[in-house]
Amino acid sequence: MDHTPSFSYPDSSLMHNLQQTQPTTTDMPVYLTLAAVTMVWGGTFVAGRFLAGSLSPMFAASLRFLLASAALLGFLWLARIPLARPAPRQWLQLALLGFFGIFFYNVCFFYGLQYINASRASLIVSLNPAVIGLASWLLFKERLARVKVIGIVACIGGAGAVIVSRNPQLLAATPDAWIGDVLILGCVLGWGVYSLFSRSLNQALGPVQTVTYSILLGTLMLWTLAAVRGELSWTALLDLGVTQWLSLVYLGVCGSALAYIGYYDGIRKIGATRSGVFIALSPLTAVLLGALLLGEHLTLAMYLGGALILAGIYLCNKPLAPSAKKRIL
To answer: What is the phi/psi pair of residue 52, to 5°?
Structure first.
C-alpha cells in the first residue's frame, strides 16, 4: 500500500536527489530504512489477520486510518511543516487517490482477510509492480523491455500458482472462499491507481503532503460508510484484547503513517526504481510471519509461486536502474 524539514523542494535539488543511480556507502541507511519499511508492510497482513473477526472490516479499516491520520498530522506538527493548500483540481485528484488508495484498497484488504490467510494475500498483492508496469505501457505508452515483460509474466504466473494452490476439497466445501482471492486482487487494482495517478501531485505538493491529504480524505470516506452501514460498534472496540489493540496500532501508525514516510523518503533519495526493488521483501516477511505467528501451512505451490513473484519483481525493476538518469518514474 509517504521527509526533509520542508517539502517545497527547489527543482534542482529534487532532480539531483531523484536522479541518484550509483550506490554509495552513504546509501546504506536508506537501504536499511527501505528494508524495514517493506518488512513492516509484510507484517500488516498478519496484524490484519489478528483483527479479523474482532471488528467489522469497515470499522477496522476506519480505525486504522484514523490512527494513521493522527500520526501523520502529529509528524507534520512536530516537524513544523504547514499543510499545503491544494488547488481545486488537486483536491479532485487527492479525492481520487483517497478513494482508490485508502478506501477501496482497505475495504478489499479487510474483507479479503476474512476468507484467505495472510501468506496467500501478501503473495497476490505482489502483483502490484507487474500491474503498474502493464498499466504504464497501456496508459502512458512507456516502453517495456523484453526482460521486463518476462518479469511481468513471472509475477502473474506466480500469483496464479498461489491462487490455484488451494485444497480442491476445501473449495468444494466452501466455494465462496474464492471471494478472498478476488478481494485481494482488488487491493492490487486500488494500489495501481494510487501509484499511477499520484505522480503529478507528488511533484506539485510533495510526497508527504500528497499522502497526508489522501489518507485524510480516505479516512473520511471509510468512517462515512461505516456509519451508514451501522458498523461502528464501540462495544466491540472496548472488548478488544491486548493483541488486537497492538495489531490496530501497528496497522495505523507503523504500517501506514511511518512506513509511507520512510518509503517516500527512500524514493526521494535514491529514486523510485531502486526503492521499489525492496517491495519484494514484503511478501517474504508476510509468509514467514504467517507461519511463525499464525501457524499457517505453507504448500509447495506457495513456495514456487512466491519464488516466481520475487524473481518477476526483480526483473521488472532491475533493467530500469541504469536509465534512471534519463527518466524519472
So the answer is: -60, 125
Secondary element (H or E) of residue 35: helix 28-51
- Phi (first) and psi of residue 298, to 5 degrees: -100, 120
- 269-294 per-residue burial string, b: 16 or more CB within 10 A, e: under 16: bbbbbbbbbbbbbbbbbbbbbbbeee
Whole-angstrom distance, CA of residue 296 vs CA of residue 287: 9
Nearest Cα to Cα of residue 190 among 154, 144, 222, 226: 222
**Per-domain boundaries in the chain:** 26-321
> What distance in Å separates the CA atoms of residue 97 and residue 210, rounded to the nearest whole number?
9
Q: Give the model's pLDDT for residue 271.
A: 61
pLDDT attached to residue 66? 93
Residue 207 burial (CB count, 10 A):
21
Closest CA to 1 of 203, 226, 186: 186
Note the pLDDT of residue 300: 82
Spatial CA neighbour of 167 closest among 117, 107, 128, 220: 117
Q: Walk along the chain (329 residues) in steps of 10 and give the mean pLDDT of each run.
A: 38 38 60 83 79 81 92 89 89 93 88 76 75 76 74 78 61 65 89 78 81 93 91 85 90 88 72 63 72 75 81 66 42
What is the pTM assigned to this prediction?
Answer: 0.72
User: What is the reported pLDDT for 327?
Assistant: 42
Long-range own/partner contacts, residues 242-249 (CB < 8 A, 24 or more apart): 243/50, 244/50, 244/51, 244/54, 244/55, 247/47, 247/48, 247/50, 247/51, 248/47, 248/51, 248/60, 248/63, 248/64, 248/67, 249/67
